[in-house]
């Protein structure tokens, strides 16, 4: 059975994300036997995890599955890696997401890709705190590779550096949150996923 690589997008993004497009084109050209998927899932964090768990359960019936997660998708991918023992490559992952969303509470959120308007409720904070604690205590460093750019203007990369220190994160100086050197890392991503 052929390998499937799924791109797990970040907050207020979608399957149309730039990195999803780059990864799709790369796999089509360099590794046509690898199946690529980019699921869309809810902007509501409490719903998103359940949808992604169902997605993984479904796809694992077809064969091996690995994840590429960006930003909040990196956090989700960490949780999915724990639950299903999946390999995951994380790019500028959002850890301690409760800190990230606290400034967004009560403000209208708009997903420009989907046109979805919504508000974050304060009940999301204790949920994220619990998930963050769980992720830190249970992720397997052998299953996770972390890529950081020090110029990330949205998330403090040193927090991920500390959180994922057993994974020996690869830090690229400069860059930004959208991870400008993404394409340069894809050979290494596929190599990691292909190792038994």
CATH architecture: 3-Layer(aba) Sandwich
Number of helices: 7
**Count of domain modules:** 1
Structural class: alpha/beta
Stretches where pLDDT is under 50 for at least 5 consecutive residues are none
Distance between the termini: 14 Å
Q: Sheet with the most strands? A: 6 strands, parallel
Order of SSEs: EHEHEHEHEEHEHEH
Shape: globular
Global mean pLDDT:
95
List the strand order in the largest sheet. 2-1-3-4-7-8
CATH H level, superfamily name? Alpha/Beta hydrolase fold, catalytic domain
Short description, anyone?
This protein is an alpha/beta fold. It has helices at 18-30, 45-60, 72-84, 97-101, 124-138, 157-163, 186-194, and strands at residues 4-8, 35-37, 65-70, 88-91, 108-111, 116-119, 144-149, 170-172.
Task: Provide an overview of this structure.
The protein has 196 residues and is α/β, with parallel strands linked by helices. The chain has a single domain, classed as Alpha/Beta hydrolase fold, catalytic domain (Rossmann fold). The protein has helices spanning 18-30, 45-60, 72-84, 97-101, 124-138, 157-163, 186-194; strands at residues 4-8, 35-37, 65-70, 88-91, 108-111, 116-119, 144-149, 170-172. The strands form 2 sheets. It has a 6-stranded parallel β-sheet with strand order 2-1-3-4-7-8, with helices on both faces. A hairpin with a 4-residue loop joins β5 (108-111) and β6 (116-119). α3 crosses α5 (124-138). The longest helix is centred in the N-terminal third of the chain and has 16 residues, at 45-60. The model has no long low-confidence stretch (mean pLDDT 95).
């Amino acid at each position: 059975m052929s390998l499937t690589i799924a791109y797990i997008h970040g907050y207020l993004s979608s399957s149309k994300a730039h990195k999803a497009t780059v990864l799709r084109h790369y796999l089509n050209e360099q590794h046509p036997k690898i199946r690529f998927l980019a699921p869309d899932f809810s902007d509501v964090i409490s719903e998103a995890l359940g949808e992604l768990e169902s997605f993984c359960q479904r796809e694992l019936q077809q064969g091996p599955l690995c994840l590429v997660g960006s930003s909040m998708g990196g956090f989700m991918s960490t949780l999915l890696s724990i639950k299903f023992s999946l390999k995951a490559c994380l790019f500028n992952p959002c850890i301690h997401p409760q800190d990230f969303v606290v400034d967004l509470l009560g403000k209208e959120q708009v997903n420009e890709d989907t046109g979805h308007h919504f508000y974050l409720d304060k009940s999301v904070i204790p949920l994220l705190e619990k998930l963050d604690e769980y992720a830190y205590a249970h992720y397997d460093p052998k299953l996770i590779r972390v890529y950081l750019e020090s110029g990330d203007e949205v998330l403090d990369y040193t927090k991920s550096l500390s959180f994922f220190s057993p994974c020996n994160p690869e830090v690229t100086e400069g860059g930004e949150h959208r991870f400008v050197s993404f394409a340069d890392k894809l050979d290494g991503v596929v190599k990691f996923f292909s190792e038994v």
